[in-house]
């Protein structure tokens, strides 16, 4: 599924998709975050990556020391693809002491494309901090994309929408990170008179070491 598909199914407005296109084409790091499971984080990650230049290398990362050594010695940096940050359970789901090396590689010139469970910019930083990444290192990820799940008033249909896109800037002199809102989803699906509200959330344990 690409960004045009997300526009067509009303998961994002065209102006929001343009922001995601620019992120993908820039080749810069980003994190997609949502609190509930199955919110579509991987779909959005892949849609953004689909806008990146084909010559940019992509390196799947599973958290091993051997990978860190090999990637450190690789001259062509490109994207570091991590399935999810903050808990384990599947290949590429990394947590605890597996997470700081990701940000060491980012500091060495790689761009991160990944996701995690968090409902806000502040919670993204909390999850990373709980997994050994200080705010100074977390601020190296310039773009955070939030997904929200909404349901119609009768509870019969659930939609996944790109709710917000933030750019992280480090305030001059203070070292503090500031989030600048680039896009906010403020509509409802076309062609319906129903109200759409936040869907019930099945919470995932956030920010806990495994």
**What CATH architecture would you give?**
3-Layer(aba) Sandwich
Low-confidence stretches: 206-210
CATH homology superfamily: P-loop containing nucleotide triphosphate hydrolases
As for the number of domains, it is 1
Radius of gyration computed on alpha carbons:
17 Å
Structural class: alpha/beta
Mean pLDDT: 87
Give a written overview of the molecule.
- This protein has helices at 3-8, 14-26, 41-49, 65-72, 100-107, 121-130, 135-138, and strands at residues 30-33, 58-60, 79-81, 84-85, 93-94, 111-116, 143-152, 158-170, 177-184, 196-198.
- It is an alpha/beta fold and 210 residues long.
- The chain has one domain (3-198): Rossmann fold (3-Layer(aba) Sandwich), CATH 3.40.50.
- Strands 1, 2, 3, 6, 7, 8, 9 and 10 form an eight-stranded mixed sheet that branches.
- Helix 4 (65-72) links the parallel strand 2 and strand 3.
- The longest helix is centred in the first third of the chain and has 13 residues, at 14-26.
